[in-house]
Amino acid sequence: MPTSPLPLQATEPSPAPLAALHGGRRNRFFVWIAVAMLLVVALGFGPSFYLRPWGTGQPLPVYLIVHGLTLSAWYLLFLAQAVLVSAGRRDLHGRLGIAGVALAAGVVVTGAMAHLNFIAHLQAQGLLSGPEDRMRAGGFVLEGLISLLPFVVLIVLAVVLRRRTQLHKRLMYWAFVWTLGPALTATRPLGAMLDSLVAPHLPFFPADLIWLVALLAYDWKTQGRIHPATYVGFALLAFYFFFVTRWLAGIEALQRLLMAQV
After folding, report:
1. Which of 4, 9, 178, 249 has the most beta carbons within 10 angstroms of its beta carbon?
2. CA 158 to CA 165: how far, in whole Å?
3. In a domain, 14, yes or no
4. pLDDT for the residue 147
5. What is the rounded CA–CA span in Å between residue 205 and residue 220?
6. Which residues in the chain show pLDDT less than 50?
7. Is 109 part of a structural domain of the chain?
8. Into how many domains does the chain fold?
């Protein structure tokens, strides 16, 4: 597979001769996308994580440090895999993909830990003043836990379908995009700045549309058509984000189960 972030060596040929004519451009595309994602993470979490030791904020709990380092390694993995493919080292790309599966599992486990400890973290800082604050925080935690499910599904499908190159690398692309959300929220410097560009016309900056347009352009340039996994993947994730997450988070049984645990 030419440019997937994780995986094992793939054998599926390019679906169109046009793709072969743009092999170098195709590989560089994912390298630059990986660099862009690292930049988003650095700008989004710079003050609160990477530069925190030199700031005035309180030290982070160990579980948040582990989570931050795991996600940092996750995006560095994308860059490493893209560079390996660009250099023609698919053998190393495949071997690193095996370790990438373990790293993806680490993203899920540390992400779940970060959410489950969120309410206790707020209480320790004196930021929860009553039951209503606790319930709002619980809703945020539940939505965060629910948001891990699409990531798990994308990774599992990408590994199972790793030999179907064109499908596999788009599954991985959306898995990486999905984990970028927290770096672009209104509580982060980058998210606040981008949101201000579209306010009051839009509730938030549609950053995911940029990743979609980039992948659409890549599809058209390398294949002369749009791969179904590009638009179907985006549509399903958007539907899950806007509808399924809120529906699941509104189920009282899940809310009670969560609050009993935290």
Report:
1. 4
2. 9
3. no
4. 93
5. 25
6. 1-26
7. yes
8. 1
